[in-house]
Amino acid sequence: MSTPFILDTDTAQDDCVAILVGLLDPAADLRAITMVAGNVGFEQQVRNAWMTLNVADRLDAVPIFLGAQRPLMREWVSAENVHGDGSGGLSMDDSGLAAQSENAVDAMLRITAEQPGEVSIVAIGPLTNVALAVIRDPGFVGRVKSLYVMGGSNNGRGNITAAAEFNFYVDPEAARTVFEAGFADLVVVPWAPLTLRDAVFDKDRIARLAGIGTPLARFVERVCRGTLAFDESVGIPGSTHPDSLTAALLLHPELITAEAPYAVDIETSSELTRGYSAMSWGVHGLEPNARVIEAVDAEGFYGYICSLVSQTTTPPRAFTPAL
After folding, report:
1. What is the CA radius of gyration of the chain?
2. CB 223 within 8 A of CB 16
């Protein structure tokens, strides 16, 4: 049986791979792509999503809804120094393509109300849209089957400051709102140590993936190219794939090899540690509010991505430069 879910994204680099997970995995029933301000400029994020749908030959398959274009209380901070345009310089003619008129938050509320307890959300950008849904309709929390969040670090290093991972740093108030909301099944896929240990594809892996030779494989290699260069410049030995990992874990929990309940809270008042995720592991008298993934089958995950991009597709619109 397929798993229905909404993908909330700030589409750049690995977010594109996460969309492919939702489009290409037979276990996935991707109901909507909702857009939130994060990695790159908002309009570029939407273009990146269209390009991903195009390479999968699924341009009409999944509706795109536009959500929050800035954090709840702060100015938007981009990661364009990391991702560039988020697509490795690819472009295509997007004439005639249009997002839905319904706002992303309204779409989340509607879709979960239509099938309460059946639809999950995979949130791989800042948590602004999810927080707004919580604020708008307190019943939303009880209707979401599972909320999978890519964000934070398990009391480890950040990737935008020494303390904070990007998604929680951009909108810490939204992250705190979500973690205080009381979701029955909130699953966290953290940046450190999990991503840095189990979801990094080094140059050899990227070359092997590109060597598969399909349009999908060449697309993934291309969108990861710029981020790979940045990661290597800061001592990470490959491109990072936490977003596609988060989507994959919803669909394939057998990839999880270690997890534990934690009480997670987000720092909002200190500029030094803004967005820091404090994760209490059960010895501080705090009630757990999340499952935190501690380890996954790294080889199994890489093999899974390779199997997805081995599928043959015919993109209906040409890319520039050509794939």
Report:
1. 18
2. yes
Taking only the tens place, the pLDDT of each residue in 128-168 is 999 999 999 999 999 999 999 999 999 888 999 999 999 99
Q: Judging by beta carbons within 10 Å of its beta carbon (0-12, 13-18, 19+), is residue 314 exposed, middle or buried?
A: exposed
The DSSP output letter for 315 is -
Q: Amino acid letter at 66?
A: L
Q: What percent of the chain clears pLDDT 70, i.e. is strictly above it?
A: 100
List the alpha helices (DSSP H) in 56-171: 80-83, 104-114, 128-136, 140-143, 166-170
Distance CA 59, CA 183 (A): 32
Answer yes or no: is pLDDT of 225 > 90. no
Q: Which two structure tokens, joined as six digits, stand for 276?
A: 């820091």
CB atoms within 10 A of CB 272: 10
User: What's the whole-number mean pLDDT along residues 5-15?
Assistant: 96
Helix (H, G, I), strand (E, B) or coil at 320: strand
Answer yes or no: is pLDDT of 249 > 90.
Answer: yes
Per DSSP, the residues of 161-220 read: SSS--HHHHH-HHHHHHHHTS--SSEEEE-IIIIIHHHSEE-HHHHHHHHTT-SHHHHHH
Q: Is 250 helix (H, G, I), strand (E, B) or coil?
A: helix
Structural tokens at position 300 = 């199994």
DSSP summary character for residue 255: G
What local confidence, expressed as pLDDT, does residue 182 receive?
97
Distance set, CA 320 to CA 65, 99, 110, 222 (Å):
25, 22, 37, 12
Q: What is the pLDDT of residues 69-123, one digit of tens each?
A: 999 999 988 888 788 888 989 999 999 999 999 999 999 999 999 999 999 999 9
Q: Are 71 and 274 in contact (CB under 8 A)?
A: no
Count of Cβ atoms closer than 10 Å to residue 210 Cβ: 18
The helices-and-strands tally (H runs, E runs) of the chain is 13, 13
Q: Is the pTM of this model over 0.85?
A: yes
